[in-house]
Amino acid sequence: MLRIAFSRLGSFVLTLFIVSLLIFATMDLLPGNAAAILLGTAARPDTIAALEQQLGLDQPAYIRYLTWIAGAFTGDLGSSASYGVPVAGLIAERLQVTLPLALIALVIAVAIGVGLGVMAAARPRQAPDRAASVFAQVGIAVPDFWFGILLILLFSVTLHWFSAGGFPGWSDPVAAVKALLLPAIALALPQAAVLTRVTRSAVLDVADEDFIRTAKAKGLTERRVLWRHAVRNALVPIVTIIGLQFSFLIAGAVLVENVFNLPGIGRLAYQSLAQRDLVVIRSVAMFFAGLVILVNFAVDLAYLWLDPRLRAAR
Amino acid sequence: MTNATATAPRFALGPRFGLHLGIAITALVIGMAVLSRFWTPQVPTRLQIANKLKPPLTSGLAGTDALGRDIFSMIMAGAWNSLSIAFLSVLLGLVVGVGFGALAAARRGWIEEVIMRFADVVFAFPALISAIMIAALIGPGGGTAVLAIGLFNIPVFIRVSRGAALRIWALDFCLAAQAAGKGRFRITVDHVLPNIAGAVAVQATIQIGLAILVEAGLSFLGLSLAPPAPSWGRMLSDAQTYLAQAPWMAIAPGVTIAIAVLGLNLVGDGLRDVLDPRSRARS
Amino acid sequence: MTLNVRIDAINLSRWRLPAKTLVEDVAFTIPDGGTLGIVGESGSGKSLTSLAIMGLLPRGMKAHGGIVLDGTDLLKLGERQMQQVRGARIGMIFQEPMTALNPAMRIGDQIAEGILAHKGMSRAAARAEALRLLERVRIPEAARRIDAYPHELSGGQRQRVGIAIALAPGPRLLIADEPTTALDVTVQAEVLELLGELIAELGMSLLLISHDLGVVASIAERTLVMRGGRPVESGETEQVLRRPSQPYTQRLIGALPRAQKFAPPATGVRPGGSTPLLEVRNLERAYHSASGHALNAVDGVSFSIEPGTIHGIVGESGCGKSTLARIVMGLDRPTGGQVLFEGEDIFAKSRAELLRLRRGFQMVFQDPQGSLDPRQSVSRIVTEPLFLDPAAPRGKAREELVGETLASVGLSPPDAARYPHEFSGGQRQRIAIARAIIGRPKLVVADEPVSALDLSVQAQVLALIRDLRDRYGLAFLFISHSLAVVETISDRVGVMYRGNFVETGTAAEVFRNPRHAYTRKLIDAEPGIDQPRRYGVARTVVEETKARLA
Questions:
Q1: In this structure, what DSSP letter does residue B12 have?
Q2: Is C337 on the interface with A (CB under 8 A)?
Q3: Is C99 on the interface with A (CB under 8 A)?
Q4: pLDDT of B46 over the 60 cut
Q5: 8 Å CB contact of B172 and C384
Q6: Name one Pfam family in it (chain A) (predicted).
Q7: Residue C25 lies in a domain
Q8: DSSP 8-state class, residue C184
Q9: Contact B217, A255 (CB under 8 A)
Q10: Confidence class of residue B163 from pLDDT cuts 50, 70 and 90?
Q11: Which of B189, B177, B169, B183 shows the shortest CA–CA distance to C362?
Q12: Considering only residues 348 to 407 of chain C, which have any Cβ-Cβ distance to chain B shorter than 8 Å?
């Protein structure tokens, strides 16, 4: 089992490496390099050359790549041209918003999605199932950032329960969580809807399996058959979808942070684009891609825990 | 048992209700998009500052925005832009993805390894992040949107088509075709592709819906088509500024997006149920 | 315990569809300690009947009538009350040992679960009881295996665990739905023996559902024959299976593969030359597992097939017979040895030459569902092998050839335009055979071609294969796990075990006078209807009769 875990770790590191090469290649090697893009078309060649030297762009590509990657470990990712501060610090600071936001959204989505999905699968085709299906269909179709706007319209503009956006910082944790609550709900809606669907159909799939009949033939209660046998074996597809959806959660975070004016990494990426700050974009892209790969690596490990058959295989 | 289900008459309206509703909605949205090429109530890009921020029904069906443009006309014209970007990007993802997916299933071994690793790598980029990277290089626009959304569709189609193709390859008729002397390419064309077409079509329908959502997100951030081209996402971004004075600006485009996506998803689910009798019993 | 079943109907009702009756007018009684077998082909309603007793009919189905267990009508019980009956008073064993156990739960827990649900026992006591049961069903090293997951056990062991699960809460009646169908014949014998031993020891009653007349004959006192949801006849097993009164039962028994019904074996004629049609020399195929050690799936096999003869290969799962078939077809490469087709080594050929040679041999598969492309018409399916043949007829002539070929396998020419899903399992297998013979090959490799078919259909397909041998002088390499089928159809036979033949010869030699111990074991394990009941016969005849009179 340990061997399988290590081989997964190997492929995780390999994927990270290829992704970093890809990001480096698109951001640093393609025509129209960082300095030129930053300064715009009207810049004089000598200004560009000076900035190139300042950004270290006059060095050979592999040196620049190694510097960047080494920086990822030492915390020195270079300086942002537009903010004039170290990129690593910038990301670390913004992480304090994005990470809690994503986590709260994930918890809400899993609680609602798995709960509704299991409830629907327990009594297929009855009223609660129909209601859950309608929720799922609508939830998937509603854009999360628009749902955020609607939440602002209702709770901030009309009811004045929440502020329309902004983030007060973690010095006041209650206010901070309150500021993150509406965006997290907006972010969670489509995730919860997808999870509802997947949970429902995964549990129903398992309900068709022979071992469910064996469990019922033992005279177990419906509740025990549902949770111990059906849901337990439906966890693999459910966890798979949580992993696959993580990429959408991140895309959603970029949008929702902009809607609610939250100083998170998603907003940083967007602002850096406006400032044409490639040094920041490169590291932010790597950060997000790394996060997606990490989550899917975690999902791979979760399979080993969830399905004993995989532990023995290969 | 199997005979009983095979000979059962086709279900009447009930279980297919979702599919029919989805087809109706999708036809309506596509119709609206096509119609907008020839006719809209107002010219969607015409500014009438004097007529600005009018609520629905006082000026046009859905009111006017901060620049006095007719919102309903903008939604109609936006449908064309949104649908064509969504369609093109999914087409890009489908062609490349199914090609690689079928190749991976046919060749196995290291070719499959490389293709799946490639899918993992591409998958690591959320569409919005790759859009930001692409926009940083070539600037925002329709091409950026198609490229970014298409890119994130590639691994989706690689996985779907490889999975479906592997299930077909495991069946005896592929062995029979090999025994008949057909090569892997020939078997892919003769047996595998026709049998995975259904699964791919279902996925494509759902991906177009998803692409509409992503495109809306991109244009909300200004990464898609440049103004003045009407776009649902940018209408929402404009609406946020006037949320207190003109909430209708935020309602109509959002509802339109949700309905368009809902229609496509209903079609996708309905098709899946028709093509896979096993899932029909469940939904 | 007495179970009195009177099912008037099992109905299936679906939204906006007329209700459909799947089972009708089934009635039987199982006395305390009695054993009843229900036999029938697929669609006979035998499994539904057993599920109705357990109250586990699929959604949308409802049983009407009365199922009275010791005075309580089970059909009148609510779900909660039924849960107290399931497991505790009626235990059930299912067909597929691969899927009938929860893959994510340790087997000890799966056994203890039923005990905890019905008996006021501590967890530790339930675990001790589970261990005792595992030992009782003869799981080796039970103390260690109690924490194993199902995938770590063999098929036979899993079915033993299934029996332990059913026994755990202490039911007085056991329902076994095709308990040994998925098992090899020697394993089947062990499981049936264990089952018989347990019901005799515990004085339990048994309701056994099976499609296999031999299995029912070997364990059931009384037998009920069902067809199309209705009972056909019932009575003492011996009487029903040896002196059947109903034409359907007679036909069913007549369809049992039996060698003596057919003419003496064909010896085959070598046209002119002196080489056999197919010669396999010292064939080897090794697989390397990830952990590094090699496994010889096929280990030095040699045999030859004469034109116009049927060469049968019989063996249990994992003996290498399917690997052998794939290699002979050129679909897999051997790691040693040769395959000579009309004297030419097929693996020494260039691809083009191999393709030319391949026109001379074709293949028929087991699963009539998966062997035909559902998106192609019968005509396209059947003509696939002509792909190789540049001289194959085109247009009108090809249509005629298809019609002719379909007619020769017992289908009609207009069937060419139809699609596979419009045909039954037996007809699909005929289409597959038509595909194999359309290019007039000399050899057809048939891998378990009748295993998925009902008895009566199986007999028809076997007759067709014989007919094709006689009419066209076709040779067959016929692979099966069933001794009876191989004995019926083959001219020569090889008994395969662990990658090689333990015995070869004419069918009569091998099966009448088996020389090898393994062959004898196989023959002994095969349940037949001509043998007396041999499992679960511990109680005295007196008790038996008394119970039945009561």
A1: -
A2: no
A3: yes
A4: yes
A5: no
A6: BPD_transp_1_N
A7: yes
A8: -
A9: yes
A10: very high
A11: B177
A12: 355, 358-359, 362-363, 365-367, 370-376, 381, 384-385, 387-388
| C245 and C321 fall within a common domain | no
- DSSP state letter for C158: H
One-character DSSP codes across A108-167? HHHHHHHHHHHHHHHSTTSHHHHHHHHHHHHHHHS-HHHHHHHHIIIIIIIS-SS-SS--
pLDDT digits (tens, 9 = 90+) for B133-155: 888 888 888 889 999 999 989 99
pLDDT tens digits, one per residue of C366-386: 887 889 999 999 999 999 988
| Cα B90 to Cα B98: distance, rounded to the nearest angstrom | 11
Higher-pLDDT residue of C184, B49 = C184
Q: How far apart are CA B46 and CA C435, in angstroms?
A: 68
Single-letter residue type at C479: I
Residues 6 or more apart whose Cβ sits within 8 Å of residue B28: B263
Tokens at residue C304, please?
């030859």
Does residue B13 surpass a pLDDT of 70?
A: no
B65 to chain C, closest Cα gap in Å? 49
Task: Please state, as a whole number, how many other Cβ atoms lie within 10 Å of the Cβ of residue B17.
Answer: 13
Please give the class, per CATH, of domain B71-278.
Answer: mainly alpha
C102 touches chain A (CB under 8 A): yes
- Residue B181 contacts C, CB cutoff 8 Å: yes
Tokens of A29: 């090697």
DSSP C367-412: -TTTTS-TTS-HHHHHTGGGGG-TT---HHHHHHHHHHHHHHTT--
Q: Which pLDDT band, with edges at 50, 70 and 90, does A34 fall under?
A: low
> What are the residue boundaries of the structural domains of chain A, listed by start?
2-74, 87-313
Q: Which residue of A has its CA nearest to C52?
A: A217
d(CA A218, CA C115): 9
Paired tokens of C467: 């007919």
Q: CB B121 to CB A18 under 8 A?
A: yes
For chains A and C, count residue pairs whose Cβ atoms are closer than 8 Å.
87
Q: Which chains, if any, share at least 3 CB pairs under 8 A with chain C?
A: A, B
Whole-angstrom distance, CA of residue C193 vs CA of residue B228: 83
| C380 and C457, same domain (yes or no) | yes
**Kindly report the CA angle at C55 between C52 and C58, in degrees rounded to 5?**
75
C57 and C152 fall within a common domain: no
Q: What is the pLDDT of residues A182-208, one digit of tens each?
A: 999 999 999 999 999 999 999 998 998
- Say whether B12 and C16 touch across the interface (CB within 8 A): yes
| Residues C76 and C199 placed together within one structural domain of the fold | yes
- Number of CB atoms found within 10 A of residue A247's CB: 24
Token couple for A180: 């993150």
For the stretch C319-357, pLDDT in tens is 889 899 989 988 888 998 999 988 888 888 888 888 788
How far apart are alpha carbons C28 and C31 in whole angstroms? 10
Return the partners of chain A (3 or more C-beta pairs < 8 Å): B, C
Asked if B183 has any chain C CB less than 8 Å from its own CB, the reply is no
Q: Are residues C197 and C290 in the same domain?
A: no
pLDDT (tens digit, 9 = 90+) per residue, C463-522?
999 999 989 889 999 999 988 899 889 999 999 998 899 999 888 888 888 999 999 999
- The residue assigned the tokens 């924490």 is C147
Q: What would the two tokens of residue C512 be?
A: 């009448």
Chain C interface includes B189 (CB < 8 A): no
Q: Answer whether residue B283 shows pLDDT above 50.
A: no
Contact C166 A222 (CB under 8 A): no
Residues 6+ apart with CB under 8 A from C59: A124
Q: Which domain does C333 fall in, by range?
A: 278-525
Residue C426 in contact with residue C364, Cβ under 8 Å? no
- Residue of C358, C372, C387 with shortest CB distance to B173: C372
